[in-house]
Amino acid sequence: MSREPNPHAAIVLAAGGSRRLGRAKQLLTRGGETLVHRTVRLASLTQPQRLLLVIGAHADEMREAVSDLRVEILVNDDWQEGLASSLRVAVDALNETGSALILGCDQPALEQSHLQRLLSGAAVSASGCAATLHGAARGIPAVASAAVLREAHGLHGDSGLRGALQKLSSDSLYLLEAAELEFDLDTPADVEKAVIGGLID
């Protein structure tokens, strides 16, 4: 893949209440850096035209955690409706037709190289999209074209974007295979495993 990544926005989804975990996973730390700060920082390294952070639960703590970073903060008052509601807030704020890099905050193994591969892959794909494989499912981090963003905007729950990406033919988008990104933080057992693996302090 020789093409440079297309101009893009970056959206960090950090509004969830971490109900199963019992505490804000976005505020867990890796190397002394909160996951929300780390994710926003990694997204900024891709040089997006705009960088958006969508917060909801634990809003004050999230603001404080990224206070030293240049990021547009959006508040999703309906965060309990799931990821799709946060994506709608971000897409409404973008109000433009470009693509967007979309990230969550619960993949402690995420690195900038993953994001660059997704952006480069999307630039040469027929759909302008890229997604990370989670088993057979397609998920985030992902690059969504304007068309996919519009479709995801009308969906609900935690699988809105995933559903829109799943509809694309496999030869029309770039699929990132990175087993380390299949591990996310949903339960206390996940956190314990991440600590043992050196991914979380």
Most strands sheet = 7 strands, mixed
Strand content bin: 15-25%
Structural class: alpha/beta
- Which sequence of SSEs, written as H and E, runs from N to C? EEEHEHEHEHEEHHEH
Q: Estimate the helix proportion, in percent.
A: 25-40%
- CATH architecture term: Alpha-Beta Complex
CATH topology: Spore Coat Polysaccharide Biosynthesis Protein SpsA, Chain A
Overall body shape: globular
Q: CATH superfamily, please?
A: Spore Coat Polysaccharide Biosynthesis Protein SpsA, Chain A
Spatial gap, N to C terminus: 36 Å
- What integer value in Å does the Rg equal? 16 Å
Strand order in space, largest sheet? 5-4-1-6-8-7-9
Helix count equals: 7
* Average pLDDT rating: 89
**Low-pLDDT runs:** none
